[in-house]
Amino acid sequence: MDFASDYVVTIDGQAVKTDRTMDIVNPATGQAFARAPVAGQAELDAAVAAARTAFPKWKQLGWQGRRELLIAAAKAVEPHAAELARLFTLEQGRPLDMARGEIDLASYWIKAVARQDLEDEVVEDSETRRVIVRHEPLGVIAAIVPWNFPVLLATWKIAPALIAGNTMVLKPSPFTPLCMLRIAELWSEILPPGVFNVISGENELGPLMTAHPGFDKISFTGSTATGKRVMEAASRDLKRITLELGGNDAAIVMPDVDVAEVAQKLFFGSFYNSAQICIATKRLYIHEAIYDAVLAEMTRLAKASKIGDGLEQGTMFGPIQNRPQYDRVIKLIAGARDAGLTLIEGSAVPKAGYFVPITLVDNPPEDAPVVTEEAFGPVLPLLKFKDVDDVIDRANASEYGLAGAVWSKDIDQAFAIANRLETGTVWINDNLQNAPHIPFAGAKQSGFGVENGADGLREFTWRRTVFVPKASAAQ
Ligand code: NAD
Questions:
Q1: Would you tell me how many other CB atoms lie within 10 Å of the CB of residue 398?
Q2: Are residues 369 and 223 in the same domain?
Q3: Whose C-alpha lies nearest to ligand 1, atom 37?
């Protein structure tokens, strides 16, 4: 695969070149390595028209027909996984083996979701009538995704939307469009024209999509600030929406844990993908009895981590994915330093590219921006607590409610704490877990609606309730 070569958008099963292109930067070098198409209103209109035209036939094909094609599409990615992983590392920055992990997981996810069904529900079966709820596809879906998991988060939308009988126009992030553009090219050999369209573009393209009257639903993953704009735009013609948004996840570590073992898991749950994960641990509350021991172990791990170009053997963490995010994280760290907080820096990072050292913040005040804001980068506040009620209040004192974790050998106590956390997901002695059959939804300002599981699948349908009289009932 020639990584610098021409990338195309896929509209109606055709590879389409756009008049304009944009630089795609390798975050490990800060240098452009490829150019991607810039789609505008004309390409968007064409993609929506193609998806509308394809919709009735795709819907008619039925679950089994669609299932076979989706599984074939997932399998078509597999022989290209190694080259896609390399492209992923170049555009996203993540180390190669973990980039490969995302490509493989995406393929697995599509197959798993494609095997799901939405059966009719009989909600009444009495002497006089049967009442049946059926799930009908909505029509054409606008899918908008971020740069942190550019392939997996796209498949979280593609697989349920398409298996349920919808067609789609996907817009990747302007920072990481290349893998999904290539995957769409592979799929144009398999999926009927117009069923799955991918258009890349600059900042203007998202708002053009949310304003477009040809979409029936917007499925969005990104920041809470953008999510609010999406919701506002969708309100104009009451498009359905699913919003997967930001998080500032708290983990609560009780005094009975095995410090060395748990610190390792906490470390990877906080810094995997250079901490650019919506469900990463972003506030680490540690019981005072073990605070110093956990801090010492986390410090040791930070100093031992190899941070660098994801293409280099042995790299554990790559760069921040893009320049604006790098600037935000650097500013957050500088603000913490200027406020006199105690920062502990991990191993040295390369000078070129968007690298940030792992930075631990030793017991900052609760109202410090490094605690209240979603960092989305490798800076983590470690906070001391003594009292369980107090730490639950502090964990819940956030506008976000995406996920959280409780760490303890006492599972009953951990379960009781978990049930008091105001987050869509809570793990006990674990983190970063999700699966195709498990619903994922943010509470508070972390989201609106559900992805994954049967609930996630239903979000791509509308309900038709049919009242069927029994023959025996009087007319
Ligand atoms: P972002 O909101 O800046 O962008 C997300 C996508 O929206 C991009 O494709 C972007 O081009 C597009 N966009 C930008 N402005 C738009 C507008 N006005 N209308 C429509 N689309 C628009 O987010 P990001 O910086 O790419 O991603 C990081 C954020 O995403 C973090 O807050 C993170 O927590 C969140 N996130 C959430 C989840 C989740 O499942 N809850 C998963 C991953 C990331």
A1: 23
A2: no
A3: 245
For residue 228, the model assigns a pLDDT of 98
- The sign one gets for the Cα dihedral 224, 225, 227, 232 is positive
Percent of the chain with pLDDT over 90: 98
Can you tell me the mean pLDDT for 385-390?
Answer: 98
Q: Verify that 388 and 259 share a domain, yes or no.
A: yes
Quick: pLDDT tens for 313-330: 999 999 999 999 999 999
How far, in Å, CA of 22 to CA of 44, rounded?
A: 17
* Residue 433 domain flag: no
What range does the domain containing 390 cover?
250-428
In one-letter notation, the amino acid at residue 350 is P
Residue 221 shares a structural domain with residue 273? no
Structure confidence by residue, pLDDT tens digits, 175-192: 999 999 999 999 999 999
Q: Judge whether 352 lies within some domain.
A: yes
- On whether both 304 and 227 belong to a single domain, the answer is no
CATH of the domain at 301: 3.40.309.10
Into how many domains does the chain fold? 2
Which is the catalytic residue, given 43, 278, 451, 459?
A: 278
Residues paired with 284 in a beta bridge: 251, 382
Say yes or no: 295 and 149 in one domain: no
Same domain membership, residue 274 and residue 227 = no
User: What's 104's domain CATH number?
Assistant: 3.40.605.10
pLDDT of residue 471: 84
What CA–CA distance (Å, rounded) separates 371 from 361? 9
Residue 378 within a domain: yes
- Answer yes or no: is 471 within a domain: no
Residue 195 Cβ contacting ligand 1 at under 6 Å: no
Would you say the CB of residue 200 lies under 6 angstroms from ligand 1? Answer: no
Q: Is 210 in the pocket of ligand 1 (CB under 6 A)?
A: yes
Same structural domain for residues 67 and 180?
yes
Amino acid identity of 253? Answer: V
CA gap 248, 230 in Å, rounded: 21
Q: Among the options 43, 102, 244, 459, which is catalytic?
A: 244
**In the chain, pLDDT over 70 holds for what percent of residues?**
98
465 C-alpha vs ligand 1 centroid, how far in Å? 35
pLDDT for residue 4 is more than 90 = no
State which of 169, 221, 448 you would mutate to test the pocket of ligand 1, scoring each by most atoms of that ligand within 8 A of its C-beta: 221
pTM over 0.85: yes
229 shares a domain with 254: no
Any catalytic annotation for residue 179?
no
- Pairing between strand 20-26 and 31-38? antiparallel
Res. 242 pLDDT band, cuts 50 70 90: very high
Is 43 a known active-site residue? no
Question: What distances in angstroms separate CA 446 from CA 200, 357, 367, one per listed residue?
Answer: 25, 27, 20
pLDDT score at 6: 84
